[in-house]
Fold each of these.
Amino acid sequence: MKTRGRFTISSGLMGAALCGYLVWVLFPMVWVAYSSFKADAAIRTEPLSPPRWAEIDGAGYVRAWHEARFGDYVLNSVLVTGISVALILVLGSMAAYALSRFHHRLGRLVYTLFLAGLTMPAQLAMVPLFFELRALGLLDSRPGLILVYSANGLPFAVFILAGFFRSLPRSLYEAAIIDGCSEAGAFWRVMLPLARPGLITVAIFQFIGIWKEYFFAFMIVGGGDGGARTLPLGLANLAITAQYRGDYGMLFAGLVMVTLPILVVYLFLQRQLVSGITAGAVKG
């Protein structure tokens, strides 16, 4: 219906559209989840039906964990993602605090360079980065992958956290100095805890990005003996093996194990994520 030059949509139609979109998004995830508990024969004969209680089969998870070495891939991903996110938060918060609190001509240049890092595709630096890591002996290793992920995530962390630190009243910093805190003490004890929404926002985005990242992992550790490969690489190998063998239960189990940590992190921290993005938009 047209009213004064504007088109209005009824709430019922909008609700129906949103429900349809929800089903469109959730059904593939739910289908993969319950198909991972079905035997291969049931997946082929009844692909859309959920498994019956007496036919639930978790052998696909066992095969994915042991035969496809998903246990090693999970350990590598946990170590690489956890250490990388920790480094991004620590280094990014310190850099953002220094660049936002202490005004200097060189500081503005450094901040501009960080922002430029957000605009340049990281893949453009892959060739010199590959040779540099090879010269340092960091190819096919978790430390090399951690360094690349940390450096790639710093511009985003500095951009987000600098807005939070600029919004904090300077009187809090001055009160901490008067009470006897050093510069480091004022940062760690007063200013950093107040930027908690920004830290959570950065942590969630970086965790999701690193956990599912494939390109850097393939270029840096994909050519080795497999000891440092992460879950995306393991899932790609699993997909090739499962399709060759026709073992779709193992493939679906691998997909669930890769996706589940992301869903858990988002569900538990979605409120902090929304509040952090909103606060950053208002304060930045």
Amino acid sequence: MRVLMVTGEYPPMQGGVGDYTHELGVALGALGTEVHVLTSKSADTERPPGPEGAPEPVVHARVARWGWRSWRALQSLVRSIQPEIVHIQYQAAAYGMHPAINLVPTRFLQSEARPRLAVTFHDLKVPYLFPKAGPLRRWSVLRLARAADVVITTNAADFQTLQAAGGIGVLDLIPIGSNIHAKPPAGYNREEWRARLNVHPTDVLLCYFGFLNASKGGETLVLALAELVRRRVPVRLLMIGGQVGASDPTNAAYLGRVRDLIDRLGLEERVSWTGYVPNEEVSASLLAADVCVLPYKDGASFRRGSLMAALAHGLPIVTTRVPGEQPSPTALHIPRLVDGQNVLLVPPDDPSAIADAVQRLMADPALRERIGRGARQLAGAFRWEDIAARHLEVYRALGVA
């Protein structure tokens, strides 16, 4: 089987959708699938060889800008490699908020001999069309979903939103896995790594992983740090990974707000930033932390790669409840976050609740151990080999051999 993945970002570009596409492509390759990737010219670079025995996807970094001309690159590549499946990895920001990718089925893939079209929605954010476009922006997302042969969501909330919208032929849910494997550098020593980060043996090291944007609660995290300092907790915060990513220009403005808040509260000496580092160094820093704090404003979701990485590393995690009535992931055959078993859940936008949860964890080693163990067990339900196998089931259900 030959599959063409379409993604606005791909390594070495910084972005969770690009990392996801790479991991899925490698896992599909290990199952005998020939995987090609159409992506941005910014990903045009020499790549190191992948893990032994794991074939890397064939990367076609051809698109300078994801506007109307990107159709030409897609059409040309489809004619050249003749895939059975074209699989769009959709996230509006990764395509520069341009609607061309949403209208691919209208302009392209119309003949009976066309490849099958799959779309994975990594979120349901709408593209920019023109000022006051209003409902047309949502229509463009639903147009893509309704024209695809199969639609895949990565979490229960998005699944139920699209299900309620109606008009979608085949709708499935396949969660993401962790883009960061628990593999620190050879010879890794946790205490030495903490010393390298200027963390005293008695310090409580909090960590945050992922880009900063308005949905991820960065300001709430800083206010929680200030509250812990006020309570005289010997605490430090490690911000792990790239700060803004390659796709969303609003991230830079939000990063500025977070840094300004750190300065105003006099917390500069307590906050460290790794910047963008190799995955093994991300893993080492995650393993060095005592508690991972992920205060998403819209609540924790399995679509968040940062959450999946924290689970894979068996960290005690403090994160946020989903506001309002929650979909039942159990009914959709995926496991769930359970307060006190694999995470500690707090309300969004509540720095004091985060501080309370951190202190509760640090005062109770048995609780820390239980939640870390539960996180690692939960991560076992999101292995890439299983995710790839589910994709093959979906492809074959479309009549693709």
